[in-house]
Amino acid sequence: MAERLIIGISGASGAIYGVRLLEALRGTGIETHLVVSRAGALTLRHETGLRPADLEPMADIVHPINDVGAACASGSFRTRGMVVAPCSMKTVAEIATGLSSTLLSRSADVVLKERRRLVLLVRESPLTSVHLRNMATISDMGGIICPPVPAFYTAPASVDDIVDHTVGRVLDLFDIDSGRVSRWAGLKTPPPPPPEPAEEDGSEPDQ
Fold it and tell me: What DSSP letter does each residue of 16-65 carry, written as one string?
């Protein structure tokens, strides 16, 4: 299989996940193809101070969002799959309904129809029933819904630690070891016992 991975950045909060994925894939031998939506560009600038042009040195190839003639719009273009990080509910809805209005949603559609791996770092809270149904539809089609939920068992010391661990776990789904994951090796010490219940002495509680 071709050593290529498509990275999509949509307009949900969490643009740093897409940026960090590109950084993590540099030097791995994986050819990265980047697609940033218009809303993704706005969020990227607001949250990180970066513009899509600033990501060009991080990716091997950058495709304009409206370039539906790009290589990754065709199933004959072999890849390991695609990650959308972060993934907005608008993008989820387009993928779930097969509505390929941009290169981002078209690339995701291609990955699904070719039975390749699609991973969506969905970002929304709370979730409506429509959001949940759309995500279930994508899961039924073989996509992986992977919300960027922090792993507190790693005792993260910073936001960067949380982002790196999530990015590492996403790359695990493609059998790419980024070296960023704190692997669980079991509890090193037993959990503390639960507190003893207070004895009732019949006295009135303090006011």
Answer: HHHHHHHHHHTTTTPEEEEEE-HHHHHHHHHHHS--HHHHTTTSSEEE-T
Task: Give me the DSSP letters along 66-92.
Answer: T-TTSGGGSTTS--SEEEEEEE-HHHH
Tens of pLDDT, residue by residue over 129-147, are: 999 999 999 999 999 999 9
- Residue for token digits 């950084």? 23
> What is the pTM for the complete model shown?
0.88
Taking only Cα atoms into account, the Rg of the chain, rounded to an integer number of angstroms, comes to 21
Cα gap 145→122, rounded to integer Å: 7
**Which is nearest to 167 in space by CA: 182, 152, 187?**
182
DSSP string, 136-148: HHHHHTT-EE---
